[in-house]
Amino acid sequence: MKNPGKSTSIPAPRTAAIRYQGVKFLNSVNELIQLPADTGWEVAVAGRSNAGKSSALNALTSQRQLARVSKTPGRTQLINFFLVEPERYLVDLPGYGYAQVPDAIRQHWQKLLERYLRERVALRGLLLVMDIRHPLTALDRRMLDGCAYRQLPAHILLTKAD
Fold this sequence. Notes:
By secondary structure, this protein is an alpha/beta fold. The protein contains four helices and six strands. Helix 4 (about 140-150) links the parallel strand 5 (about 125-130) and strand 6.
């Protein structure tokens, strides 16, 4: 201690950082009719099945088990809603690309996601999670094109840089 008579204040964590540490799982949906009321603000997390979306959500919220992490691609098979605060949500979307699922399920996901991304009024932005080792795919570009069409802000989060 250089100067024990002088107190040093430690800055408080930013409100945004604290807000995301308190995120809680709300529900999972498999049909548009199951979605919560289309009010408030939602930020969707999207990406290929093996991009690390669940790990990214856990890191962003400083929670180890908020979103289930699996070594098997395609384990997120529903639209998962996480409550940040009243009328504010993070939305974990099923991955696209590598999931080993029957074609009927893949087609259901595609229709569900297309309608969610196209019609959801509360959707205010997209976080596209990408494995840094792989280039943009046609599906990634379609996701970004859809955001541009709707004038939704989109951010790309690169994972697996270790």
